[in-house]
Write a structure and sequence with these properties.
Number of helices: 3
Oligomer: single chain
Strand content: 25-35%
Structural class: alpha+beta
Amino acid sequence: MLNIPEIKNKAIWNFVLTISFLAGFLYLIFYGHSYEKMPQKILAIIASMSPVLLFLINVKTSAGKNIFFLVVFLVFFAITLSLASEYYKDYQLSKYAIHTKGLVVELKGEQARGRIEYSAIVEYKIGNLVYKQSISNNDYKLKQGDILDITASNKDPELFRFHIK
């Protein structure tokens, strides 16, 4: 038999997870193309895990509770890993920064997740090597032939940030 505090606690969890799922789902529909920023990645992880957490929170068996804590741990791990990768990129670009120019050599659109994802292929040179990277262009700011200021890592040249002039 469930007591009142346990029912209230489940109701609060159900409400919070439902709201996070709906907010995340709507955010992904309207702004799903902008995964470059960390809050969007975290919101996407939480939104994708919310239905699983909603199901598991209502399971009354000990196995269900163990799975619930495993899922919570995996969500925490995914968020920590995402933050660590962003920290690593910031560290590399601050300590081993090289400034160079990049050229938009190609624009393309690909069908993905039920809509067209627009991207630009940027070519830049570090030392004797030429690198080509695909970057999101869903806001249509980049045109073919644009020159970008690029900050890349000397140790890992595929880590870069670009600045539009």
